[in-house]
Amino acid sequence: MPDDTGVASRRTALKTLGLAAAAMVPGRGFAQAPAVRKKVSLAFWTWSDNPSHQKMLVDSVDAFNKSQSFITVALDAGSRTMEVQQKVLVAFAAGAAPDIAGAVQTHIQDYFNAGILWPIDPLFQKWDQKADYFPNILAFMRSKPEQPILYMPQRILPYILYYRADWFDAAGLKPPATYDAFIAAARQITKPGEHAGYAMRGVDYYAVQPIEPIWGSAGVQFVTADGKVDFADPTAVTVTEKWIGMFTKDKSAQASAISDGYPQLFSLMERGGAAMWIYGTHANPQLNAALGDRIQGVPTPNAGQTPRMLANPEGDFITTSCKEKEAAFEFLQFMGSADPVGMLAISRGYLPVRKSLSNDPRIQGNRFFKIATDHADTWWTPPFSWQNWANYQNKIAPYWQQALRQEITPKQWNEQAAALLRGEG
Amino acid sequence: MTVHVGKIGGHIALGAAMRLPRHRRRMDFLPYAFVAPILLLLAAISFYPSLYAVWLSTTNASLLRLAQAHFVGLHNFVRLAGDSVFLNGLWHTLRWDLTVVLSELALAVPVALFLNQKFPGRALVRAAVVLPYILPPAVTALLWLYMFDGNFGVMNDLLVRVGLQEHYVAWLSGGTSSFLVTAAAMVWSGMPLMAIVLLAVLQTIPTELYEAASVDGASAWQRFRRITLPHLRPTIAFLLLLRTIWMSNYIDMIFIMTRGGPGFSNYTESVYSFMLTQQLEVGYSSAVAVALALALMAASAFYVRHLSRTVLA
């Protein structure tokens, strides 16, 4: 049953999965009218974050295989996100790529550039459900405006600002809407020896990711339309200085920020060690379970006139080596339908990317989801399609720790990041 | 039967072999047939990947652009000479090797000597000592990571309770402290192997030697120095070589506990090579791995030569 967060248990989702197989996509039943009417076997590689996620994938694929008698999908979901990318790249080079693979938006353009991703545009344009996707999701599906539809996102992960409402109320503070208010609130609400103002991450690229919409809202484009990198411009450096200043000057971030990753930050929030945390909506079930109404959310603060909410789509694509593309597309349609989305997206704290699935009571009744859906028009990603984005994303982490340790200045960090975005280093 | 071909009385004995019956000559291939499967297996899983890594190190291969990869000669190795992460990694590797291997040895010798004594519950203690080595390195790494966590680590709690610290310390946020914690975890995990191997050697030393030395009035230290240590020395020399090679190639503990950080402060050469692979730069990553392999081969050859002239002579 849905709990206070609007999140259904997996048992509930599983119970309905088998019953609803024939009516998974509005206006279309797989069992009654399969598009592919010959025996086809497909290999599907994707990642799983944990055993529970893996089980959901297994159940979803089983449900698809049982929903019709022509296509059999074999699932490989034993790896993590980055490992899947490596596996797919190596397998493609060896001539043994899967037919379908899971991907995060970050990797889509790289797959396309490498000739691994087959754009689903010809099949998508013929699909009667194509208008069900949000317009900004359609833009993500192209990766670049001039490109065809590349892949089928299943879910999206918006980032919001979680804050301790009880502490903010006690301090007479309002949740911050602007970046400066956020920095000031972190400083004011910090109680040395008790709790930090902000739960700051220092480990890996995801330490930087929550700041990207703030840079974006300040007008930083990372890469301009004419290919100029503006990430070392004064505006970008100012945002960086304020963020790093929370740790180095204000002492409003926890002392262990440099070496803290997701498990440490979650624990910090859960046991009352920090007042604010920018993170994806997928943290909301656990945070709500631990803190109840004391934890609330608002959109991530902005540093300018253009609000940005980081929202990363995830989904599946068909490889160029797949010989049965129509069958593969049939599977993608299934994975984008109500029950797999209910299990793999909504129950895990992600949002669906289709209008018809966004009215789910589990979404409407969840205060954190509602913040994200109410600001869907501000969903944004940095320019993942830029040719050197992977170079930046894969290499920037150690320099971030160096900046937190004051071995380099925030300006030097931005210059290093800009160099990586230019393809240097 | 093997037919030996050589000079006999100034004549080449090949003629004799030529005169052997046909079925006898066929037998010559039998030993090769026996070893062929394992040779083929080794070629497939060891020689070919190694040679391919050498080839990759001379290319600009990236997993994202494999089709465009091309031969760049020694460019990657020239690049290494100016790469500060690689150059600092030489020191980080040496520091890691020396700290871990020597600490393991320093602990393993007394532990082995203790386990060689007769006392009640010895079998249980021996089994308990081996336990850290049995644990998967990833599990050990996570155990130590959370024990020394700056927010909720049990070590911080203990040190604050006993008054050695005023407040929690972010052990893994400091360059030196993160290295020491990681090295301690590695020593805890790896020391039992050394101790058990040394214990096996200790059990081969004839007790008569100790009895005779005692009759001659030798002290415990003299017995250790004059009897135990000489028996242990060849094994210690071998263990030092083996563990140094293993530690030079070691990634698990360092990666899980520190990701090579903070910054690049725990980037050994093997961790650097691994991180480059994670960044999909397989050409340059292979160059780092090949450079490390060459350095280890050179150091090992020098060490083995030295041993053959001293310890094993």
Explain how this protein is built.
The complex is a heterodimer of chains A (about 425) and B (about 325). Chain A has two domains: about 20-155 and about 315-360, D-Maltodextrin-Binding Protein, domain 2 (3-Layer(aba) Sandwich); about 160-310 and about 380-420, Periplasmic binding protein-like II (D-Maltodextrin-Binding Protein, domain 2, 3-Layer(aba) Sandwich), CATH 3.40.190.10. Chain A contains 19 helices and eleven strands. Chain A has helices spanning about 10-20, 50-65, 80-95, 105-115, 120-125, 135-140, 165-170, 180-190, 210-215, 235-250, 260-270, 285-290, 325-335, 340-345, 360-365, 365-375, 390-395, 395-405, 410-420, and strands at about 40-45, 70-80, 100-105, 115-120, 150-165, 195-200, 275-280, 295-300, 310-320, 350, 380. In chain A, strands 1, 2, 3, 4, 5, 6, 7, 8, 9, 10 and 11 form an eleven-stranded mixed sheet that branches. Chain A is globular and about 65 Å long. Chain B has about 325 residues and is mainly alpha-helical. Helices cover about 70% and strands about 0% of the residues of chain B. Chain B is built from 14 helices and two strands, in the order ββαααααααααααααα. In chain B, strands 1-2 form a two-stranded antiparallel ribbon. In chain B, a hairpin with a 2-residue loop joins β1 and β2 (about 10). The interface of A and B includes residues 255, 256, 390 and 399 of A.
Number of strands of chain B: 2
Major sheet characteristics of chain A: 11 strands, mixed
Number of helices in the DSSP assignment of chain A: 19
- Tally of domains of chain A: 2
Question: What's the gyration radius of chain A in Å?
Answer: 22 Å
Q: Provide mean pLDDT of chain B, rounded.
A: 90
The class by helix and strand makeup of chain A works out as alpha/beta
How much strand of chain B? under 5%
For the record, the CATH architecture of the largest domain in chain A stands as 3-Layer(aba) Sandwich
Q: Tally of extended strands of chain A? A: 11
- The sequence of SSEs of chain B as H and E is EEHHHHHHHHHHHHHH
Q: Report the helical percentage of chain B.
A: over 70%
Low-confidence stretches of chain A: 1-32
State the name of the first-level CATH class of the largest domain in chain B.
Mainly Alpha
CATH topology grouping of the largest domain in chain A:
D-Maltodextrin-Binding Protein, domain 2
Helix content of chain A: 40-55%
